[in-house]
Amino acid sequence: MAYDLTGLFSRVTKEMRRNPCAQLQGLSGHLGVGRHTLEKSVKAATGKNFREYRATVLLDQARRRLGQNPNLSIKEIAFSIGFRSQRSFCRFIKATAGCSPKALREIDKAPKEVAA
């Protein structure tokens, strides 16, 4: 069976917004397609494999929540995104953004310079 990879990717994106910590196997089962087909749709749309795409989605969610919820603790944000521990969330942020969640919150809070 041939799939509309673009349509499938839009479904993947919708599900990833709802559950950014979704695993490939669970997501493919939920959408009723094979893992390889799902990976092919992500690769065609983004040029990234599923793991890289998922990391991008997770980092975007983390940045958004860190910026929009300055009164929430790092732990509360980690759990709201779907991480099972604050420690794993902090390791993920450090590996993908190169800084701690607290530092990322400060970076995103700082006013952006306008290029002349």
Rg computed from alpha carbons, rounded to a whole number of angstroms: 16 Å
| CATH fold-type name | Arc Repressor Mutant, subunit A
**What ranges have pLDDT less than 50 throughout 5 or more consecutive residues?**
none
**CATH C-level category:** Mainly Alpha
Total count of domains: 1
Helix/strand-derived category reads mainly alpha
Dominant shape? elongated
CATH superfamily: Homeodomain-like
Tell me the total number of β-strands.
0
Average pLDDT number: 90
What does the model show?
The protein is mainly alpha-helical and 116 residues long. The protein has one domain: Arc Repressor Mutant, subunit A. 71% of the residues lie in helices and 0% in strands. The chain is built from 7 helices and no strands. The protein has helices at 5-18, 24-31, 35-46, 50-68, 74-81, 86-97, 101-109. The chain starts with a helix and ends in a 7-residue tail after the last helix. The mean pLDDT is 90.
